[in-house]
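Much of what follows relies on a compact textual record of a protein's fold. The record below shows the convention in full:
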Amino acid sequence: MAELITAKLLLIACFLLIVTLIETLAYSTRIAGTRVRLIATAISLFSTLVIVSRFSTMIQQPMTAKLINAAPEGNVMKFIEEQYRLLIGVLLGILLFPTFILIFSKAIVQMSEQRGSIPALVKKNMNLRGIKRMLSCIRIPRFYYLKGITLQTIPKRLFCLNVIVTAVFTTGVLSSIYASIIAPEYAQAALMSSGIINGVATIILTLFIDPKASVLADRVVTNPSKYIYLKSYSLTMVSSKFVGTLAAQIIFLPAAYYVAWFARWI
């Protein structure tokens, strides 16, 4: 086990944890935006967080691929499979969700005061006083947050779609890298296939998931009684992301063999 868990693996795991944390908590920006009635500013902050997480994923890919070079000879596939499975996780984001609703509410107001300048917002809070303000926002998840949420308010189709999208995003890069081991003669094609896989997931996200959130946010601004539906949406997105991460464990190997087949076919 000590040989399996290396310093480089822990570094990549921490990096991935930050990425998945950003993606999960980005959903809380819309709730925060409706609470302070600055929905356009909230969506701008949401887009910034998603871009940062996507860019971080691009940096993580070559780091993860280098793990293959450190695998013991004669046991490369099994060793890398076990290492890659250790890199999948998202639970921390769910636990911090109430905390970030409060943080983002304050950040959105400050961003509006800074005339939309994110660098100015970061500069204003990157000091001892700003850190203390963020720490004061820490909230432990409580059951009262679920008050009013029922099966009728939860968008079930959206839940299923986001499970699929999350599973694909979570395992897309890892499966493509693992496919390069399965089909070493087509390693380059397999590695480049991750862009196609994640691209399909991005299209689903853009066409079917994000517009729903924007419409809900607009309705809540004009009719506060519909706030429960936006809260249900956010809970749906976070919980489905967790389920999707678990599903990624199941599809990791099948996806890798599919990518290997696709790399040979093209």
